[in-house]
Amino acid sequence: MRIEILGQGTFESALITLNPGESFRSESGAMFRASENIDIDVTTESGGKGGFFAGIKRMLAGENFFFSTYKVKNDRSGEVGIAPTHAGQLRVVTLTDDVAWLCTGGSYLGSTMGLVVDTRFQGLKGFFSGESISFVHVSGRGHMLVGAFGRVIDLDVEDELTVDTGHVVAFEETLDYTIGKAGKSWLQTWLAGEGLVIHFKGQGKVLVQSHNLKEFGKELGPMLPPR
Predict the structure, then answer these.
(1) CB of 122 closer than 8 Å to CB of 133
(2) How many other β-carbons are positioned within 10 Å of the β-carbon of residue 8?
(3) Domains and CATH numbers, the chain
């Protein structure tokens, strides 16, 4: 299998080349093209416990109810084109058995079949952060494809790191995190126009996006004609 990122900058997409016997899983609706020898199956199965309630849990995490699974149906290699809904960069993340990743709502795009895709409930953290109440939890050995709004930035946390909640794409589960204010006081946070932030502690990797999709929506919404 080969995962190739096409384009550069704002409108990136991914081309997955599958050999006979190989499969790839993506969010439903992410495919924009496929070769004629690719079989497409729509399911709630995520490599874990699957089923109806697994789909409901993913919806609470800001993802789709269904997955699409692609596999070659003859003895020749085939291709699948995957792209996110919004404009931005993509990133291929390689996972090993010892470190799982957590993805914020809408950032998980697809993965190889060796990975288990589940959800991780945030509790009250999700309500206070303004994000979804669950993260997408990805574990196992394989490759994961995530999408960002704008540019993807890799950050290595050695001790502590603070990131605006709307800019977090994914992070390693080895990191602890808390939700807090950006300034020294809530008044300073409000006057600065900042929202809530995530304080990471520990050692691990964080992927952040340069632009905030929700803030962009707030700016764009009033400019659109009424329905």
Answers:
(1) yes
(2) 8
(3) 2-223 (3.60.160.10)
pTM of the model: 0.82
- The string of pLDDT tens digits covering residues 152-167 is 999 999 999 999 888 9
Please write the tens of the pLDDT for every residue from 17-50. 999 999 999 988 899 999 999 999 987 655 555 5
